[in-house]
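Changelog-linked ticket: manganese (II) ion example.
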Amino acid sequence: MATAAATMPPLPTLSKQVTEWVASVRELTQADEVYWVEGSDDEYRHFIGQLQQSGELQKLNEAHYPNCFLARSHPSDVARVEHLTFVCTSKQEDAGPNNHWMAPAEARAKMRGLFSGCMKGRTLYVVPYCMGPIDSPYARCGVEITDSAYVVINMMLMTRAGRAALERISREDSFVKGLHSTGELDPNRRFIMHFPEDLAIESFGSGYGGNALLGKKCHALRIASYQARNEGWLAEHMLIVGLTSPQGDTHYVAAAFPSACGKTNLAMLIPPDSMPGWTVTTVGDDIAWLHPGPDGRLYAINPEAGYFGVVPGTNRKTNRNAFEMIQRDTLFTNVALTADNQPWWEGLDTGTPVIDWQGQPYAPGNGPAAQPNSRFTVSAKRNPRYAPEADSPRGVPISAIIFGGRRRGVAPLVYEARDWNHGVLVGASVASETTAAAIGQAGVLRRDPMAMKPFAGYNYGDYWSHWFAMGQKLKHPPKIYHVNWFRRDSDGKFLWPGFGDNLRVLDWVLKRCSGRAEANETAIGNLPRPSDLNLAGLDISESALDELLSIKADEWRAEAADMAKYLDEFGARTPAQLRAQVAALQQRLG
Ligand code: OXD
Ligand code: MN
């Protein structure tokens, strides 16, 4: 590639919509130069070199971590900022109580002030990208304009970015406009604005992934969920995993969990030694776009092309695939360093940190060595269990949808919804303890329906109605489940081993999907009995199993009452069907 920034778009046929928008942003931001990202490997290497020169990237130990680099963010810019994230629909009710709202004109004016002249002396990068396989009718494109080369290389790993996307945009002439500047990283001048009615995003003042890599949460969840409701599909915070049983049949499962609750681990699960013959492959680890297929089943694509995963806790035992995947060609953000310049994080069972995530000599009294929300960015192709179907334009058929949360009590290990409509209540009832993935106190229980609380780009009431409507469109809807890997005993210890042993639960789920497993019908749904699960080789006490697989009616009566109260927040937008599901649950609970 040319080393000087290109000033002309690479396609003569490029739509005016794109060129005029880029020109107007350049005028607003006063950028010195405009660079159009082509998406080549040479270009990626060039950006890496440039970021090393500017000191924004540090090369890691080449012998142990070839082609790996470390970035350190500003210490105040380490996670998503939900309180500074807005959905700017014309009517406030359309954004709903689940979103912060600002009137579009006010938001545009505020952002105009912030972006005005903000790229003086800087290069404006134009990143055309495609969310989903480039030839998939389900994929959607966007263009991110950013002044951060770090954002550019992350987008190159996380999306299908460059010329092919620009060609598709030129053909379709419809794309999401994403404008980003790191600004001065001042938390008082930081806003992540969404304009779903205009398919536009404006993000200022943060370089953190979820706030700055606009293809991910901003486009593929907030804007896409809004688009999906209008067009009759679903954009969800779900991993997609392929499971082939020892008998050779393959099923795909989509699973929604709040941030930092183990989606990447479940998507890359390693079967326990005592369950030989299973093969697990990853289609996606964070986002699923779900469409009714021609055969009446639900089909999923992963709009992303890479993983932006939580590093702490990753080791050979918890997630061997992820651990191997990040041994090369990986960008690390906010991890610690060993004396010989290897990345280090809490949960890594080898090495010793000497430099903490802020670049200071590590002192145990100063908190964790790696930032608890430190991340890896890596191409999905580096995953040893990458599912080739992830590139299929048709997507994969989904047999089961699983919802889950991080809960010390109440929710059993697994239960099955009675049907799709009851499943909407099961998903809407997800509650979870907060984690380090967003700024704020961790460990507080909050409702996180469908694990979409930070990501639904419109009123949850309308969102649930859309879920009911989707069920109507499916002749063969997936079965719906809820799991809780995080239940604890009275001493605070986890009752379930989790990780690879979660396959025991998935095994039961798949057997239920094909009518080959029994269940205990309860008021909240169908639970396995211990004898219904494959527990061979698992060291677990009868009392732990009993606690994991039973429910307490009084706790669930309180849970249902709390849910009914929660739904009141959405007033008239709460679908009557959902209220009826709560009432039916309350009746079953007595
Ligand atoms: C993520 C998140 O980064 O959910 O995936 O925060
Ligand atoms: Mn996520």
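Closing comment: Example verified and attached. Residues 80, 209-210, 259, 286, 308, 437 surround oxalic acid (ligand 1) (CB under 6 Å). The radius of gyration is 23 Å.
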